[in-house]
Structure formats: C-alpha cells, structure tokens
Amino acid sequence: MSTEHFPEPDARRVVATALDEDLGPQSLDVTSTATIPADQVGVGQVVARAPGVLAGGPVIALVLDEVAARTGGVPPSLDVRNADGTALERGDVVAELRGPLRQVLMAERTVLNILSRLSGVATHTRRWSDALAGTGCTVLDTRKTTPGLRALEKYAVRCGGGTNKRMGLFDVAMVKDNHKIAAGGVGAAYAAIRERFPDVTVEVEVTTTAEAIEALEAGSRFLMCDNMSVDLLRETVDAARAWGAERGESIEIEATGGLTLEVAADYGATGIDWMSVGGLTHSSPIVDLALDLV
C-alpha cells in the first residue's frame, strides 16, 4: 500500500492534540524524567501482539519529531519494517526506534493509540474486502467516523482494501427520507440540488424497486438501496439495470443497512457496485500493538 495519499496535515493535527492530552501544558512525562537520565539511549520496537492489517505507519515519525520539538531533545532514529496495508502476524516488528529513551517513552502511547486505532479499521475493512472477493462489489466507508479522525480513518479503510464514498456533506449530495419530505418529494429534491450544484454527484436513497425507478426518472444515476433483503435487492438491481440499458445510461447501485460479513457475499452477488458499511469506522476493534525496549 503506497502512502502517497497519507493525509499528513490531518495527522499532524491529531498528533498535536494527542500530545497535548498526554504531556500537558509543560510537555512533561514525570515518570520518564525522574527515572531515565537525559543522555540514556536505547532501542524500542513497535510490535504486533495480535494479527491485523497495518495502517498509520507515517504517524510514528510525526510523533517523534513533535515530541523532540516540544522538549528540545533529539528525535530517535526510525526504521519502519512494514508498510501500511501489510498483513501482520503476532510478533512482527512494525518499526524500530533508536535513540534517547525519554523521547521514545514520551512518544509511546500516542504512537500506539493512533496506530492501533487505524490498524483496527484497516483489519476490519480487509475482512469485508475478502468476503466480497469475486463478486464485483467494493466495500465503502461512510461518514460514521470518529470526530477529528475522518481523514485518517478513511485512509485506513483504503489500507484495508476498501474505498472512500465521500469525505463529507460537501462533495456528494445524498437525498435521504428527510430531504424528500422537506423538499416535497425525490423529484423536487433532485431538481433543487441540480439547480444549485450542477456538477455534484447526486445519490438517492431508496427502499423499494418503485422508489428506485422514481429516483431514476427524477434524474439520479446513483442509487443507495437501504435495508433491502437479498431478493428485493436483486429485483431492484435488475429493474434499474434494465431501465438504464433501455436509455443507454450507466447506473451505479449501492447497498447499505443491516449488512454483516456472513451475508456480504450474497448481497455482493446481486450485481451491486458498492456496499457501504458504517461499522468499518464506528465499530472496529483496535489491533493490539506494543512498544518493547530491547
């Protein structure tokens, strides 16, 4: 997995906030300052204590640099052993830190908190991606992210083999039930968006085949099928594809709501393009990572 699109500005902001929480206004680790001489050096390794998919590796260097800047110290040297997107086994060394031990231990918890969280998202996403293999369907994330961590969590989804649906309310219009009610119907809602934002992608949430056709007639070419059974979804996909074929139109179709890993392949086989799963970011357990002095 290339880190070319790692969201470094967002990562720097998160690192700064995390270190504010951990080191306080005086940038102080009272335990390490009291027990470790300023000139003592050593080696620490970030190690996987459980299997998982790595995400967030570039954060390590950012944390080390920020700790050094706050304390006037010298950042430890860093040897990253595994790239983001790598499947880790228990005992694998993610990175080795060599230098002032105070700096290493002051950085430890911030490094582990961020890496464990992002790797958990990547690991969960990989399970969905594997479950959908061969179906032609790709797993998507949602806006159900941890406040302040959206760019990083969506990066972790990409590390796990998923795709980002939209970054926020600003880049894709999604017409849901409340918009239909407020605007006076799906047609009115679609027309209002097209008039105000002519270039934005417009997706319409539907729960029945009839609603799907209504959305297509209104102008949408992106359907989000919400909480449908496999049979209803297949019927809706077939109807939407037939509608598009008659007009030479390409239709994108997404499924969402109530999906589990156990039924992912069944839903993926209905012919949908996308499957959005909020749990990728709101319910992924962390990957257990540790920093051990060696």
From TrEMBL:
<dbReference type="GO" id="GO:0005737">
    <property type="term" value="C:cytoplasm"/>
</dbReference>
<dbReference type="Pfam" id="PF02749">
    <property type="entry name" value="QRPTase_N"/>
</dbReference>
<dbReference type="InterPro" id="IPR036068">
    <property type="entry name" value="Nicotinate_pribotase-like_C"/>
</dbReference>
<feature type="domain" description="Quinolinate phosphoribosyl transferase C-terminal">
    <location>
        <begin position="121"/>
        <end position="292"/>
    </location>
</feature>
<dbReference type="InterPro" id="IPR022412">
    <property type="entry name" value="Quinolinate_PRibosylTrfase_N"/>
</dbReference>
<dbReference type="Pfam" id="PF01729">
    <property type="entry name" value="QRPTase_C"/>
</dbReference>
<keyword id="KW-0662">Pyridine nucleotide biosynthesis</keyword>
<dbReference type="InterPro" id="IPR002638">
    <property type="entry name" value="Quinolinate_PRibosylTrfase_C"/>
</dbReference>
<dbReference type="InterPro" id="IPR004393">
    <property type="entry name" value="NadC"/>
</dbReference>
<keyword id="KW-0808">Transferase</keyword>
<dbReference type="GO" id="GO:0009435">
    <property type="term" value="P:NAD+ biosynthetic process"/>
</dbReference>
<dbReference type="InterPro" id="IPR037128">
    <property type="entry name" value="Quinolinate_PRibosylTase_N_sf"/>
</dbReference>
<comment type="similarity">
    <text>Belongs to the NadC/ModD family.</text>
</comment>
<dbReference type="InterPro" id="IPR027277">
    <property type="entry name" value="NadC/ModD"/>
</dbReference>
<dbReference type="GO" id="GO:0004514">
    <property type="term" value="F:nicotinate-nucleotide diphosphorylase (carboxylating) activity"/>
</dbReference>
<comment type="pathway">
    <text>Cofactor biosynthesis; NAD(+) biosynthesis; nicotinate D-ribonucleotide from quinolinate: step 1/1.</text>
</comment>
<dbReference type="InterPro" id="IPR013785">
    <property type="entry name" value="Aldolase_TIM"/>
</dbReference>
<protein>
    <recommendedName>
        <fullName>Nicotinate-nucleotide pyrophosphorylase [carboxylating]</fullName>
        <ecNumber>2.4.2.19</ecNumber>
    </recommendedName>
</protein>
<feature type="domain" description="Quinolinate phosphoribosyl transferase N-terminal">
    <location>
        <begin position="29"/>
        <end position="119"/>
    </location>
</feature>
<dbReference type="GO" id="GO:0034213">
    <property type="term" value="P:quinolinate catabolic process"/>
</dbReference>
<keyword id="KW-0328">Glycosyltransferase</keyword>
<comment type="function">
    <text>Involved in the catabolism of quinolinic acid (QA).</text>
</comment>
